[in-house]
Amino acid sequence: MRRGILGGTFNPIHLGHLRGAEEARERLDLDEICFVPAAIPPHKNEKIEVPASRRLEMVRLAIENNPAFSISDVELKREGKSYSVETIHYFRREGPQAELFFIVGLDSFLEVSTWKRYEDLFSLCHFVVLNRPGVERWELSELKPREFWVVFLVAEKNNRWIHGPSGHSIYFLDRPFMDISSSEIRQRIREKKSIRYMMPDKVEAYVLEKQCYERQESGDRRQKTEVRTEEKG
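-> structure tokens emitted (233 positions)
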């Protein structure tokens, strides 16, 4: 089984997340892609005003009509911050025969050397890097620490790098142009602007019904008393 894993806060999930996942599934012939909402992402200090239970429900609504998409609450059940290496170890134990493909955006990948035990990740799974439209892929020589990246081989024909010790690959995919971001959606809601066609209809209806992002960031309106965690991009 070839299984993709796509993590993030999904605050909220939108069509860019879904199209990127579908592109990876199709181009790498993946049997399944599992969406993994994060509880407390380790890298960003921005706050999430929406409880994890609601973000989980948004993802469930977004993927319910795609039999190749699934969802896991493993990071929401785990205490503390959501480290990718712990999540990958979980999926390795859950399905030891599965071939794992960890899906990330280019911006996140360029910071991978700051992740907890990042060297171990390349021995556990493949990486799938979704490049933003119009951004050229960085060369190995641009990434640090350089002494780690020298163990990779460049396979330009297949647009991937191969991790010499494990044989796992880093695949680079140019995703379709969809200029949508979660932060833009949150801002548009606060400004009473339309978010139609930025996310699945059921997710839009849920977000508006629950008034998930209507709190103003300025202090002149009462803030909702909901569980708050750190946000990951």
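The beta strands are 2-8, 32-37, 47-48, 69-71, 99-105, 126-131, 152-155, 160-163, 169-174, 229-230.
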